Amino acid sequence: MSFKTIAVIILLLVYFWGLLLKIMQWRSAKNPIPLNVADVYDRETYKKWRAYNAEKSRLSILEGTVDSLAGLALILLNAYAAFAGLFSQTPFMQMFAVLLLSSLTFVFSLPFSYYDTMVIEEKYGFNRSSKKTFWMDQLKNFLISFILIMGIGALLMWIHKGLGDWLILVFAGAMTLLMLGISFLYPVFSRIFNKFTPLEEGELKDKLTGLLEKHGYRVRAIQIMDASRRSTKSNAYFTGFGKMKTIVLYDTLVNAMTPDEICAVFAHEMGHGLHKDTLKNQLLTFLQMLVLGVLAWLTLRSEAIFSDFGFEGVNYGFAIILIMSVEFALVAPLFGLLANAVSRRAEYRADAQAVEEGYAGALISGLKKLAKENFADLAPDPLLVKLEYSHPTLSQRIDAIEKNKKA
Ligand SMILES: [Zn+2]
What separation in Å is there between the alpha carbon of 347 and the centre of ligand 1? Predict the structure, then answer.
């Protein structure tokens, strides 16, 4: 069997697996709602949620199908090699050509993103993006991801040419550093997309600062991010290495919640910090990168793979496409299962931290508000939760919070 046939089979498997998950999500609107979250939506809102879920699911099934068909067509027609033929034969330009064509497939997703944000989210009152913000975001996202993928390609080429078999470890290490760098730079990137203003003096600021200082952190600043420019969905996080932290609250959170509820949500975030949850995530990231390193090494060793897709010799851009969307896609669900299980445990522990700080009641009411605002699925299929959910369901979290409160 040629590598091309194997790739096509895997792409189809990945497509049908994704389809199965999306259908499960679509159908979860029929599941009965657990009693402890029965008051999150009133009758009217629940009807609205069901319609929202159905529209979102239909769109994502359609998008997944178009996306997969486009990917399959490019592979079946050897389009990457043909496109690369239009460019000069240097390895760098050959890589550039393939990654450019692959990035351009993002154009196919534009109508879906547009429909999702400007039609569905708009219809249900979530969207705050103007058309201009939407298009600017798309452009910025495209440029950032294209520069990033070119950087990764150049790195792979350089390591492969210079270090040969050491590729596995060096590439895995470099990719882990890159991932860490991105999460470190996330606050910087979010400044490209958002505006920040300091939280005004008062009870909330004192309480939040008190929470962090009690555990030996120092607060550099508490800032409010204008998330409402894009969406009404809310969140909070804190950033900064070592003991100096900057707290970021979405303005949507500050506007919708009582000071105690904000503190409860924040105490939860602090719980993640105290339990070094990001460190555990980083270890998992390294493990994934090691697998990617092995796949990259195996792929680049065999020129026959590339000639199956119409190339004369190794193409580093196409190697990345094969590794990411074919080879790694096959093991990705396993990593997802593991990472999500670890993450859900961390969520329970972070909730327990908020309970310990005395915010059990505020956390429950805050989480209910968040669920309502984010139009959360209150009764997702348990199998879907195991496979796909990084957070336990609201009902599971409330059960655990009440148990902890009594303990
Ligand atoms: Zn959390």
Answer: 5
Can you give the pLDDT at residue 308?
A: 94
* pLDDT tens, residue by residue, 138-186: 998 899 889 999 999 999 999 998 888 888 888 888 888 888 887 777 7
Residues at Cβ < 5 Å from ligand 1 ion: 347, 350
- Taking the alpha carbons at both ends of the chain, their separation in whole angstroms is 60
Contact of 378 with 371, CB cutoff 8 Å: yes
267 alpha carbon to ligand 1 midpoint, in Å? 10
Using the structure block, give the residue that is written with the tokens 């606050």.
Answer: 187
What secondary structure does DSSP assign to 359-390, as a single string?
-HHHHHHHHHHHHHHTT--SS--HHHHHHH-S
Ligand 1 center to 384 CA (angstroms): 19
DSSP code of residue 165: G
Cα 341 to middle of ligand 1, angstroms:
13
- The helix (H) or strand (E) run that includes residue 128 is none
Q: Which amino acid is at 169?
A: L
Cα–Cα distance measured from residue 339 to residue 341, given in angstroms and rounded to the nearest whole number: 6
**Could you give the 3-state DSSP secondary structure of residue 39?**
coil
Owner of token pair 């790694």: 328
Burial of 206 (C-beta count, 10 Å sphere; 0-12/13-18/19+): exposed
Nearest C-alpha neighbor of 186 from the set 239, 147, 125, 118? 239
What's the Cα-to-Cα distance from 295 to each of 160, 224, 238, 299, 307, rounded to whole Å? 13, 42, 35, 6, 18
Distance CA 153, CA 63 (A): 27
CA–CA dist 112, 187 (Å, integer): 28
Q: What is the structure's pLDDT at 173?
A: 87
Output the CA 350–ligand 1 centroid distance in Å.
Answer: 6
- Alpha-carbon gap, residue 302 to 6, rounded angstroms: 15
